[in-house]
Amino acid sequence: MGRKWNNIKEKKASKDTNTSRIYARFGREIYVVAKQGEPNPESNQALKFVIERAKTYNVPKAIIDRAVEKAKGGSDENYEELRYEGFGPNGSMVIVDALTNNVNRTASEVRSAFNKNGGNLGVSGSVSYMFDQTAVIGFEGKTADEVLELLMNADLDVRDILEEDDAVIIYAEPDQFHAVQEACKAAGVTEFSVAELTMLPQNFVEIEADVQAQFEKLIDALENLDDVQQIYHNVEGDE
């Protein structure tokens, strides 16, 4: 699973350099989750999870608080969660998650991004069956053996534990996310380099250099859409 972590790390690095966009996306997601449930992370686990994720991207507390307060204020702004699945150059697979207040606009923009960059949209389920939803939690300061022991003490059996670049990376079932993170916190972990629910491809594909540029244009075009929240794909070594 090492290369899966490399892809996640590259994705984070890419987003860390585009702070205004990532802040806006987290602000939107926090608002939606807070509005759907209680605007209190202590009683709303989904909100707590999003805020924890936001912290790993260094989203300022002021932005988090503003989104929560907006939800508390009873804003009538509504968003719909959408997932698009499609194919890029050389049959590469791409999943696009979006939050939108205009479904027709978003569908048109996503379709256009695929069509203009050597790809095409597929039907629901045409790609996602080749990905596994996975909780990924990473931090420094402990060894894989130490993490295995603390998880065993918490009666948690996860998919895998790896040491990569001075960090320990835990791959777990999605419904284990909160339990794993709380067990790590109880063992003294105070800062996480990654805390994500992500879609990991079951298999990676490599594409030729001349096709790689076209694929990157597709991902960039999708990333630049305001309604797009997350993009997952199965191309080796690119985010």
Structural notes for this entry:
The protein has 239 residues and is of the alpha+beta class. It has three domains: 2-72, Integrase, N-terminal zinc-binding domain (Arc Repressor Mutant, subunit A, Orthogonal Bundle), CATH 1.10.10.200; 80-124 and 204-233, 2-Layer Sandwich (Alpha-Beta Plaits); 130-201, Alpha-Beta Plaits (2-Layer Sandwich), CATH 3.30.70.980. The chain has eight helices and eight strands. Strands 3-1-2-8 form a four-stranded antiparallel sheet. Strand 5 (160-164) and strand 6 form a beta hairpin. 32% of the residues are buried.
What is the count of helical runs?
8
On the 0-100 scale, what is the average pLDDT? 89
Shape: globular
CATH topology of the largest domain: Alpha-Beta Plaits
Q: Please, how many domains? A: 3
- The structural class is alpha+beta
Share in helix: 40-55%
Give the CATH architecture of the largest domain: 2-Layer Sandwich
Side by side, the strands of the main sheet go 3-1-2-8
List SSEs in N-to-C order.
HHHHEEHEEHEEHEHE
- From the N-terminal CA to the C-terminal CA, the straight-line distance is 16 Å
Classified by CATH, the class of the largest domain is Alpha Beta
Which stretches are low in confidence, meaning pLDDT under 50 for 5 or more residues running? none
* Structure summary, number of beta strands: 8
- Largest beta-sheet characterization: 4 strands, antiparallel
Gyration radius from CA atoms, angstroms? 18 Å
